[in-house]
Amino acid sequence: MIEEKGILFILSGPSGVGKGTVRKALFEQSTDLKYSISMTTREPREGERDGVDYFFKTREEFEKLIGEGQLIEHAEYVGNYYGTPKQYVQQTLDEGKDVFLEIEVQGALKVRENFPEGVFIFLIPPSLEELKDRIVNRGTETEEKVKNRLSAAKEEIEMMDAYDYVVVNDQVDSAVHKVQSIVLSEHCKRERVAHEYKKALEADQS
Ligand code: 5GP
Q: Which residues are registered as beta bridge partners of 35?
């Protein structure tokens, strides 16, 4: 293996787009990616297990983790905290393994600040495209509705600017396949491979 450090992949996107479904389907297939289990203060849902789906924490415990700087990012989403543990991510990347985060958009923006070299994947609903068509082609909606839809669609599209890849979640299998292709492409990137080759050669000369 030439590459030394692992690559951090971040899957994010608007709420309700199906990030969790795509992530679960991805990890059901064999993958070398390591999923970073998030911390949350929300109640476990039926069938969810502590340390598997999430690390379930009380608000006090979570706030302590924030205070101790143990999270790469955290966000409040529908009244609960969610956050990414720093130690697991850093240690796993240092071991040369790829880490995969599935988080909401505010958190992803914060990760971008600290890990600009991460690979950011934005999952969008297929209806966004339909929505655009509707906004542009129909003439039947009230001006107010068109305006609201346009501004919602614009906000979602503007969020894409912070990402490296966009995957349309039209079908789960196809979205998973696209994510796998992104992972493969990133490993083939010239600068990543060339850099490691050069380092290996330099080390040999010393
Ligand atoms: P749920 O409660 O449905 O499992 O997740 C709610 C939202 O929180 C989803 O959009 C999910 O991607 C996001 N989420 C899960 N873990 C994290 C995390 O560690 N940080 C952030 N910022 N969002 C997260």
A: 100
